[in-house]
């Protein structure tokens, strides 16, 4: 690899790290070329070498957010079926300081995604992927007799995701009311209602 290419990749890494620092501190509302340049201690002109404008910067920021979300440490499910469903739900919640920061950024991204057709499509696809993962766990739980055999997998996945995202938003706005242990209790309460339906079949 040539020195020039190495320098370019190093600089791009530095820019990406600066983008993440701005997101973590100010969210998408504060994400500007000037703010990224300030985080790097560099000129705005250097940043515009990588991003022609705000839209390209936002696209890159969302890519970083998705990558960091995929790379973050995750809980290990003890078994397939209901334990996996529980683990997937817990993994979405702001149970740690890192989880709080990640969720704050994701919630902040909704506005920019809803106002741009391409970003809207990308985020809609992301939620389809999340629901598909929940569907797999739900199907396994049905086959293992942990959930009602008549349960509508797609509907239940949508309900579970809606419950989890509602809990995320409540926790971000009232963290003192929703410490990690209470969030976990609420997830277990939610899952208990599903298994109660099985018992009444």
Key traits:
Arc Repressor Mutant, subunit A, 2 domains, mainly alpha
CATH architecture of the largest domain: Orthogonal Bundle
Please give the largest β-sheet: none
Q: Which fold name is given in CATH as the topology of the largest domain?
A: Tetracycline Repressor, domain 2
What is the total tally of β strands? 0
What class, by secondary structure content? mainly alpha
- Shape call: elongated
Helix content: over 70%
- The amount of beta strand, in percent, is under 5%
CA-based gyration radius: 20 Å
Order of helices and strands: HHHHHHHHH
Provide structural commentary.
76% of the residues lie in helices and 0% in strands. With 201 residues, it is mostly helical. The chain folds into two domains: 3-69, Arc Repressor Mutant, subunit A (Orthogonal Bundle); 75-199, Tetracycline Repressor, domain 2, CATH 1.10.357. Helix 4 (54-71) packs antiparallel against helix 6 (97-114) and helix 5 packs antiparallel against helix 7 (117-143). The radius of gyration is 20 Å and the shape is elongated. The mean pLDDT is 90.
Describe the structure in brief.
The chain has 201 residues and is mostly helical. Helix content is 76%, strand content 0%. The model has no long low-confidence stretch (mean pLDDT 90).
SSE blueprint:
Layout: H1 3-26, H2 33-40, H3 44-48, H4 54-71, H5 82-92, H6 97-114, H7 117-143, H8 153-173, H9 180-199
